[in-house]
Amino acid sequence: MPGVTHDDAPLLAELLPWSVAAPRIGRAWPLAPEAASLRARWDAFVRAGRAEREALMEPTRARELRSAVAQLPGRDTSTAPLAEEDGPCPEPVRVLHAPFDEQWLIPDHRLIDAARPELWRVADARQIFLVEQPTAPGESGPAVLATSLLPGATVPQTGAPTVRPGRIRPLYRRPGGLEPNLAPGLVAHLAAPTGARVSAEELPAWILAAARSGPKGPVVPLPRDAGVWARGVELGSRLLWLMRRGPGERPKLPGGRRPYVRAPLPARPEAPQYDPAEETLLIGSGRVAPVPAAAWEFRIGTVPVLESWFARRAAVGAPGSLAAIGPSAWPQARTTELLELITVLALLAELRPRQEELGEELGDPGESIGRDELCEAGVLPPPDSARRPASVLDHQEEGPGGQFALL
Protein backbone atom coordinates (compact mmCIF):
# COMPACT_ATOMS: atom_id res chain seq x y z
CA MET A 1 0.00 0.00 0.00
CA PRO A 2 1.44 3.41 -0.91
CA GLY A 3 2.25 5.87 1.85
CA VAL A 4 -0.40 8.42 2.77
CA THR A 5 0.50 11.96 1.69
CA HIS A 6 -1.20 15.21 2.62
CA ASP A 7 -3.48 14.65 -0.36
CA ASP A 8 -4.51 11.26 1.05
CA ALA A 9 -4.80 12.14 4.74
CA PRO A 10 -8.25 13.11 6.04
CA LEU A 11 -9.03 16.71 6.84
CA LEU A 12 -9.53 17.82 10.42
CA ALA A 13 -12.87 19.16 9.17
CA GLU A 14 -13.92 15.59 8.35
CA LEU A 15 -12.76 14.03 11.61
CA LEU A 16 -14.37 16.70 13.85
CA PRO A 17 -17.32 17.69 11.66
CA TRP A 18 -19.08 20.30 13.81
CA SER A 19 -17.36 23.67 13.81
CA VAL A 20 -18.18 27.27 14.70
CA ALA A 21 -16.73 30.55 13.46
CA ALA A 22 -14.80 32.66 15.97
CA PRO A 23 -16.83 35.05 18.14
CA ARG A 24 -16.67 38.68 17.01
CA ILE A 25 -17.02 41.40 19.64
CA GLY A 26 -17.26 44.44 17.37
CA ARG A 27 -15.74 46.91 19.86
CA ALA A 28 -12.49 46.80 21.82
CA TRP A 29 -13.54 47.96 25.29
CA PRO A 30 -15.32 44.77 26.57
CA LEU A 31 -11.97 42.92 26.31
CA ALA A 32 -8.83 43.63 28.38
CA PRO A 33 -5.76 41.92 29.86
CA GLU A 34 -7.06 42.67 33.40
CA ALA A 35 -10.57 42.16 34.78
CA ALA A 36 -10.24 45.35 36.87
CA SER A 37 -10.04 47.44 33.69
CA LEU A 38 -13.34 45.96 32.50
CA ARG A 39 -15.10 46.81 35.75
CA ALA A 40 -13.80 50.40 35.58
CA ARG A 41 -14.96 50.72 31.97
CA TRP A 42 -18.41 49.37 32.80
CA ASP A 43 -18.75 51.78 35.73
CA ALA A 44 -17.85 54.70 33.46
CA PHE A 45 -20.42 53.49 30.93
CA VAL A 46 -23.36 53.23 33.37
CA ARG A 47 -22.49 56.61 34.96
CA ALA A 48 -22.68 58.34 31.59
CA GLY A 49 -25.74 60.21 30.39
CA ARG A 50 -27.77 58.99 27.43
CA ALA A 51 -25.98 61.00 24.73
CA GLU A 52 -22.52 60.21 26.09
CA ARG A 53 -23.42 56.56 26.64
CA GLU A 54 -24.30 56.14 22.97
CA ALA A 55 -20.86 57.40 21.93
CA LEU A 56 -19.12 55.24 24.53
CA MET A 57 -21.01 52.17 23.36
CA GLU A 58 -19.43 52.43 19.87
CA PRO A 59 -22.59 51.11 18.19
CA THR A 60 -22.49 48.88 15.13
CA ARG A 61 -25.19 47.52 12.85
CA ALA A 62 -25.40 44.47 15.12
CA ARG A 63 -25.42 46.20 18.51
CA GLU A 64 -26.58 49.58 19.81
CA LEU A 65 -28.15 50.88 23.02
CA ARG A 66 -31.62 49.55 22.20
CA SER A 67 -30.63 46.13 20.84
CA ALA A 68 -32.81 43.31 22.18
CA VAL A 69 -30.85 40.08 22.58
CA ALA A 70 -30.98 36.89 24.65
CA GLN A 71 -28.64 36.04 27.52
CA LEU A 72 -25.47 34.19 26.69
CA PRO A 73 -25.90 30.53 27.66
CA GLY A 74 -24.77 29.98 31.23
CA ARG A 75 -24.58 33.71 32.05
CA ASP A 76 -27.03 35.48 34.36
CA THR A 77 -27.01 38.96 32.83
CA SER A 78 -29.75 41.48 32.17
CA THR A 79 -31.60 41.41 28.86
CA ALA A 80 -32.95 44.97 29.23
CA PRO A 81 -31.63 47.49 26.68
CA LEU A 82 -28.23 48.94 27.54
CA ALA A 83 -29.83 52.39 27.43
CA GLU A 84 -31.53 51.45 30.72
CA GLU A 85 -28.62 49.59 32.36
CA ASP A 86 -27.57 50.73 35.83
CA GLY A 87 -26.38 47.51 37.47
CA PRO A 88 -22.91 46.18 38.32
CA CYS A 89 -20.51 44.81 35.74
CA PRO A 90 -21.17 41.18 34.79
CA GLU A 91 -18.37 39.02 36.18
CA PRO A 92 -15.60 38.95 33.53
CA VAL A 93 -14.58 35.58 32.10
CA ARG A 94 -11.21 34.40 30.82
CA VAL A 95 -11.02 33.89 27.04
CA LEU A 96 -8.34 33.09 24.47
CA HIS A 97 -8.20 36.33 22.49
CA ALA A 98 -5.34 35.33 20.16
CA PRO A 99 -2.84 32.47 20.02
CA PHE A 100 -1.29 32.16 23.51
CA ASP A 101 -2.94 35.43 24.59
CA GLU A 102 -5.44 34.96 27.42
CA GLN A 103 -7.52 38.04 28.29
CA TRP A 104 -10.78 38.92 30.08
CA LEU A 105 -14.17 39.58 28.51
CA ILE A 106 -17.42 41.11 29.80
CA PRO A 107 -19.81 38.22 28.99
CA ASP A 108 -22.78 40.38 28.06
CA HIS A 109 -24.54 39.51 24.81
CA ARG A 110 -25.63 43.14 24.39
CA LEU A 111 -21.97 44.11 23.85
CA ILE A 112 -20.94 41.30 21.49
CA ASP A 113 -21.80 41.48 17.80
CA ALA A 114 -21.49 37.74 17.10
CA ALA A 115 -21.10 35.77 20.33
CA ARG A 116 -21.66 32.28 18.83
CA PRO A 117 -24.01 31.06 21.63
CA GLU A 118 -23.53 27.45 20.53
CA LEU A 119 -19.93 27.69 21.80
CA TRP A 120 -21.00 29.12 25.16
CA ARG A 121 -23.50 26.25 25.61
CA VAL A 122 -20.78 23.60 25.50
CA ALA A 123 -17.98 25.52 27.28
CA ASP A 124 -17.23 23.80 30.59
CA ALA A 125 -14.42 22.12 32.51
CA ARG A 126 -14.53 19.01 30.29
CA GLN A 127 -14.46 20.81 26.97
CA ILE A 128 -11.42 21.16 24.71
CA PHE A 129 -11.64 23.56 21.77
CA LEU A 130 -9.40 22.88 18.76
CA VAL A 131 -8.75 26.06 16.77
CA GLU A 132 -7.55 25.91 13.19
CA GLN A 133 -4.68 28.27 12.44
CA PRO A 134 -4.30 29.97 9.04
CA THR A 135 -0.79 28.61 8.60
CA ALA A 136 0.13 27.86 5.00
CA PRO A 137 2.34 24.85 4.19
CA GLY A 138 5.96 25.81 4.80
CA GLU A 139 5.11 28.59 7.26
CA SER A 140 6.06 28.42 10.91
CA GLY A 141 3.86 27.36 13.80
CA PRO A 142 1.26 24.72 14.62
CA ALA A 143 -1.67 24.07 12.30
CA VAL A 144 -4.02 23.56 15.26
CA LEU A 145 -4.11 25.04 18.77
CA ALA A 146 -6.08 23.77 21.77
CA THR A 147 -7.65 25.58 24.70
CA SER A 148 -10.16 25.04 27.49
CA LEU A 149 -11.17 28.71 27.32
CA LEU A 150 -13.69 30.22 24.96
CA PRO A 151 -11.45 30.91 21.95
CA GLY A 152 -11.09 33.45 19.20
CA ALA A 153 -12.84 36.53 20.65
CA THR A 154 -11.87 38.99 17.92
CA VAL A 155 -12.05 42.78 18.14
CA PRO A 156 -11.44 45.60 15.64
CA GLN A 157 -7.79 45.97 14.65
CA THR A 158 -5.65 47.76 17.24
CA GLY A 159 -2.47 48.09 15.19
CA ALA A 160 -0.99 44.88 16.59
CA PRO A 161 -0.15 42.07 14.15
CA THR A 162 -2.86 39.48 14.53
CA VAL A 163 -3.72 35.97 13.40
CA ARG A 164 -7.25 35.69 12.11
CA PRO A 165 -8.63 32.58 13.84
CA GLY A 166 -9.95 29.72 11.76
CA ARG A 167 -12.84 27.42 12.56
CA ILE A 168 -13.32 26.31 16.17
CA ARG A 169 -14.00 22.60 16.67
CA PRO A 170 -15.21 21.54 20.13
CA LEU A 171 -14.31 18.01 21.21
CA TYR A 172 -17.80 17.52 22.67
CA ARG A 173 -21.16 18.47 21.20
CA ARG A 174 -22.87 18.65 24.61
CA PRO A 175 -21.87 19.91 28.07
CA GLY A 176 -20.37 17.49 30.56
CA GLY A 177 -18.12 15.75 28.05
CA LEU A 178 -21.07 14.12 26.26
CA GLU A 179 -21.35 13.13 22.58
CA PRO A 180 -17.86 13.46 21.08
CA ASN A 181 -17.71 15.63 17.98
CA LEU A 182 -16.22 12.88 15.82
CA ALA A 183 -17.08 11.26 12.54
CA PRO A 184 -19.28 8.26 13.41
CA GLY A 185 -17.24 5.07 13.55
CA LEU A 186 -13.86 6.85 13.61
CA VAL A 187 -12.71 5.55 17.01
CA ALA A 188 -13.65 1.95 16.20
CA HIS A 189 -11.88 2.11 12.83
CA LEU A 190 -8.71 3.47 14.44
CA ALA A 191 -8.71 0.79 17.11
CA ALA A 192 -9.07 -2.11 14.65
CA PRO A 193 -5.70 -1.95 12.85
CA THR A 194 -3.68 -0.64 15.79
CA GLY A 195 -5.01 -3.07 18.35
CA ALA A 196 -4.84 -0.17 20.77
CA ARG A 197 -7.55 1.02 23.12
CA VAL A 198 -8.45 4.24 21.33
CA SER A 199 -10.69 6.77 23.07
CA ALA A 200 -12.27 10.03 21.98
CA GLU A 201 -10.32 11.81 24.74
CA GLU A 202 -7.04 10.87 23.02
CA LEU A 203 -7.98 12.39 19.68
CA PRO A 204 -7.09 16.03 20.58
CA ALA A 205 -3.63 14.90 21.69
CA TRP A 206 -3.07 12.94 18.47
CA ILE A 207 -4.31 15.86 16.37
CA LEU A 208 -1.94 18.33 18.04
CA ALA A 209 0.99 15.98 17.48
CA ALA A 210 0.21 14.95 13.89
CA ALA A 211 -1.80 17.72 12.21
CA ARG A 212 -0.19 19.49 9.28
CA SER A 213 -1.26 22.49 7.23
CA GLY A 214 -2.92 21.78 3.91
CA PRO A 215 -4.47 23.82 1.10
CA LYS A 216 -7.99 22.93 2.30
CA GLY A 217 -7.21 23.25 6.00
CA PRO A 218 -5.36 21.08 8.52
CA VAL A 219 -4.88 17.44 7.58
CA VAL A 220 -4.48 14.67 10.17
CA PRO A 221 -2.56 11.51 9.20
CA LEU A 222 -3.85 8.49 11.15
CA PRO A 223 -1.61 5.54 12.15
CA ARG A 224 -1.96 1.78 11.76
CA ASP A 225 0.58 0.86 14.42
CA ALA A 226 -0.27 0.84 18.15
CA GLY A 227 3.23 2.01 19.05
CA VAL A 228 3.01 5.00 16.73
CA TRP A 229 -0.40 5.86 18.15
CA ALA A 230 0.91 5.65 21.73
CA ARG A 231 3.94 7.84 20.97
CA GLY A 232 1.80 10.39 19.20
CA VAL A 233 -0.73 10.56 22.02
CA GLU A 234 2.03 10.93 24.61
CA LEU A 235 3.63 13.75 22.62
CA GLY A 236 0.28 15.41 21.96
CA SER A 237 -0.69 15.20 25.63
CA ARG A 238 2.38 17.26 26.46
CA LEU A 239 1.49 19.78 23.75
CA LEU A 240 -2.07 19.95 25.06
CA TRP A 241 -0.87 20.51 28.62
CA LEU A 242 1.37 23.36 27.52
CA MET A 243 -1.29 25.03 25.39
CA ARG A 244 -3.80 24.86 28.23
CA ARG A 245 -1.15 26.22 30.70
CA GLY A 246 -1.58 23.40 33.19
CA PRO A 247 -3.38 22.52 35.36
CA GLY A 248 -1.05 21.32 38.08
CA GLU A 249 2.68 21.92 37.96
CA ARG A 250 3.73 25.05 36.10
CA PRO A 251 5.90 24.60 32.99
CA LYS A 252 9.65 24.81 33.51
CA LEU A 253 12.61 24.92 31.15
CA PRO A 254 15.04 21.98 31.41
CA GLY A 255 18.25 22.25 33.36
CA GLY A 256 16.83 24.54 36.00
CA ARG A 257 16.80 27.51 33.61
CA ARG A 258 13.97 29.99 33.93
CA PRO A 259 13.42 33.48 32.57
CA TYR A 260 13.33 36.22 35.16
CA VAL A 261 13.46 40.01 35.31
CA ARG A 262 17.06 41.27 35.38
CA ALA A 263 16.00 44.96 35.28
CA PRO A 264 12.48 46.22 36.08
CA LEU A 265 10.16 46.90 33.17
CA PRO A 266 9.22 50.56 32.68
CA ALA A 267 5.72 51.82 33.43
CA ARG A 268 5.03 52.13 29.70
CA PRO A 269 7.11 49.44 27.97
CA GLU A 270 8.31 50.02 24.45
CA ALA A 271 8.25 47.44 21.69
CA PRO A 272 10.61 44.64 22.76
CA GLN A 273 13.95 43.95 21.12
CA TYR A 274 15.97 40.74 21.34
CA ASP A 275 19.68 40.23 21.96
CA PRO A 276 20.47 36.69 20.72
CA ALA A 277 24.03 36.70 22.08
CA GLU A 278 22.81 37.33 25.63
CA GLU A 279 19.42 35.59 25.19
CA THR A 280 17.86 38.75 26.60
CA LEU A 281 14.57 40.48 25.92
CA LEU A 282 15.13 44.26 25.93
CA ILE A 283 12.00 46.20 26.91
CA GLY A 284 13.04 49.83 27.15
CA SER A 285 15.18 49.91 30.29
CA GLY A 286 13.82 46.50 31.33
CA ARG A 287 15.65 43.23 30.87
CA VAL A 288 14.30 39.67 30.88
CA ALA A 289 16.65 36.68 30.57
CA PRO A 290 17.30 33.97 29.66
CA VAL A 291 14.89 34.00 26.74
CA PRO A 292 15.63 31.15 24.31
CA ALA A 293 15.78 32.23 20.70
CA ALA A 294 13.08 29.67 19.88
CA ALA A 295 10.61 31.54 22.12
CA TRP A 296 11.38 34.91 20.52
CA GLU A 297 11.13 33.42 17.01
CA PHE A 298 7.94 31.44 17.66
CA ARG A 299 5.36 32.33 15.01
CA ILE A 300 1.85 31.45 13.96
CA GLY A 301 2.11 31.72 10.21
CA THR A 302 4.08 34.93 9.77
CA VAL A 303 3.00 36.60 13.04
CA PRO A 304 5.56 36.60 15.91
CA VAL A 305 3.70 35.59 19.07
CA LEU A 306 5.74 37.51 21.66
CA GLU A 307 5.84 40.75 19.67
CA SER A 308 2.10 40.68 18.96
CA TRP A 309 1.37 39.88 22.65
CA PHE A 310 3.29 43.03 23.62
CA ALA A 311 1.72 45.16 20.91
CA ARG A 312 -1.80 44.36 22.07
CA ARG A 313 -0.92 45.45 25.60
CA ALA A 314 0.84 48.59 24.40
CA ALA A 315 -2.16 49.68 22.34
CA VAL A 316 -4.00 52.60 23.95
CA GLY A 317 -7.62 53.46 23.20
CA ALA A 318 -8.57 56.84 21.77
CA PRO A 319 -8.77 59.62 24.39
CA GLY A 320 -12.21 59.69 25.98
CA SER A 321 -13.07 56.15 24.88
CA LEU A 322 -13.76 53.31 27.28
CA ALA A 323 -10.86 51.35 25.78
CA ALA A 324 -8.53 54.09 27.08
CA ILE A 325 -9.39 53.12 30.69
CA GLY A 326 -6.70 50.82 32.03
CA PRO A 327 -3.78 50.58 34.42
CA SER A 328 -1.56 53.64 34.71
CA ALA A 329 1.57 51.47 34.81
CA TRP A 330 2.60 48.01 33.66
CA PRO A 331 1.04 45.56 36.19
CA GLN A 332 3.18 42.94 37.88
CA ALA A 333 0.69 40.28 36.78
CA ARG A 334 1.58 40.98 33.14
CA THR A 335 5.24 40.32 33.85
CA THR A 336 4.35 37.01 35.48
CA GLU A 337 2.26 36.09 32.45
CA LEU A 338 5.11 37.10 30.14
CA LEU A 339 7.61 34.85 31.93
CA GLU A 340 5.23 31.90 31.67
CA LEU A 341 4.52 32.61 28.00
CA ILE A 342 8.26 32.62 27.22
CA THR A 343 8.59 29.24 28.93
CA VAL A 344 5.61 27.74 27.11
CA LEU A 345 6.79 28.89 23.68
CA ALA A 346 10.32 27.59 24.29
CA LEU A 347 9.00 24.19 25.40
CA LEU A 348 6.64 23.93 22.43
CA ALA A 349 9.54 24.71 20.09
CA GLU A 350 11.62 21.95 21.72
CA LEU A 351 8.91 19.42 20.83
CA ARG A 352 8.89 20.27 17.11
CA PRO A 353 11.63 17.74 16.19
CA ARG A 354 9.54 14.96 17.74
CA GLN A 355 6.54 16.13 15.71
CA GLU A 356 8.66 16.04 12.56
CA GLU A 357 9.86 12.50 13.39
CA LEU A 358 6.25 11.42 13.84
CA GLY A 359 5.38 12.94 10.48
CA GLU A 360 8.19 10.98 8.83
CA GLU A 361 6.94 7.74 10.38
CA LEU A 362 3.44 8.41 9.11
CA GLY A 363 4.84 9.01 5.64
CA ASP A 364 6.30 5.48 5.40
CA PRO A 365 4.43 3.11 3.09
CA GLY A 366 1.61 1.31 4.84
CA GLU A 367 1.89 3.25 8.10
CA SER A 368 -1.13 5.54 7.68
CA ILE A 369 -4.86 5.21 7.16
CA GLY A 370 -5.90 7.23 4.13
CA ARG A 371 -9.09 9.08 3.36
CA ASP A 372 -10.11 6.56 0.68
CA GLU A 373 -10.01 3.77 3.23
CA LEU A 374 -12.17 5.75 5.63
CA CYS A 375 -14.66 6.40 2.84
CA GLU A 376 -14.80 2.69 1.98
CA ALA A 377 -15.47 1.91 5.65
CA GLY A 378 -18.33 4.41 5.78
CA VAL A 379 -16.58 6.65 8.30
CA LEU A 380 -16.29 9.47 5.75
CA PRO A 381 -17.90 11.63 4.71
CA PRO A 382 -19.65 12.36 8.00
CA PRO A 383 -23.44 12.78 7.81
CA ASP A 384 -24.87 16.28 7.60
CA SER A 385 -26.33 15.88 11.10
CA ALA A 386 -22.79 15.58 12.51
CA ARG A 387 -21.97 19.04 11.15
CA ARG A 388 -24.81 20.68 13.06
CA PRO A 389 -24.84 21.52 16.80
CA ALA A 390 -26.72 19.30 19.22
CA SER A 391 -30.27 20.61 19.67
CA VAL A 392 -31.38 19.11 23.00
CA LEU A 393 -30.81 21.35 26.04
CA ASP A 394 -31.58 20.59 29.68
CA HIS A 395 -32.25 24.20 30.73
CA GLN A 396 -34.08 27.30 29.57
CA GLU A 397 -32.30 30.44 28.42
CA GLU A 398 -33.61 33.95 28.88
CA GLY A 399 -34.43 35.88 25.74
CA PRO A 400 -34.81 39.65 25.28
CA GLY A 401 -36.71 41.50 27.96
CA GLY A 402 -36.88 38.56 30.32
CA GLN A 403 -38.76 36.26 27.94
CA PHE A 404 -37.60 32.66 27.65
CA ALA A 405 -35.68 31.91 24.48
CA LEU A 406 -37.18 29.42 22.06
CA LEU A 407 -34.56 26.92 20.95
Which features would summarize this protein structure in a list?
single chain; 407 residues; alpha+beta; 4-stranded mixed beta sheet; 4-stranded antiparallel beta sheet; 12 helices; 29% helix; globular
Q: Helix fraction?
A: 25-40%
Number of domains: 1
- Poorly predicted regions are none
Radius of gyration: 23 Å
Q: Can you write the helix and strand succession as a string?
A: HEHHEEHEEEEEEHHEHEEEEHEEHHHEH
Class by alpha and beta content: alpha+beta
Give the biggest beta sheet: 4 strands, mixed
Compute the number of strand runs: 17
Q: How much of the polypeptide forms β-strand, as a percent range?
A: 5-15%
Measure the end-to-end span.
49 Å
Basic shape: globular
Task: Provide mean pLDDT, rounded.
Answer: 90
Strand order in space, largest sheet: 1-3-2-6
SS summary, helix count:
12
Structural commentary:
This protein has one domain. The protein has a four-stranded mixed β-sheet, covered by helices on one side. The protein is an alpha+beta fold. The protein is 29% helix and 14% strand. It is globular and about 70 Å long.
Give a topology summary.
Blueprint: H1 12-15, E1 31-32, H2 35-47, H3 50-57, E2 93-98, E3 101-105, H4 117-122, E4 129-132, E5 144-147, E6 150-151, E7 168-170, E8 172-174, E9 178-180, H5 186-194, H6 203-210, E10 222-223, H7 226-243, E11 260-263, E12 273-275, E13 280-283, E14 286-289, H8 293-296, E15 299-300, E16 303-304, H9 305-314, H10 332-350, H11 352-363, E17 368-369, H12 371-376
Parallel strand pairs: 2-6
Antiparallel strand pairs: 1-3, 2-3, 4-5, 4-7, 8-9, 10-17, 11-14, 12-13, 13-14, 15-16
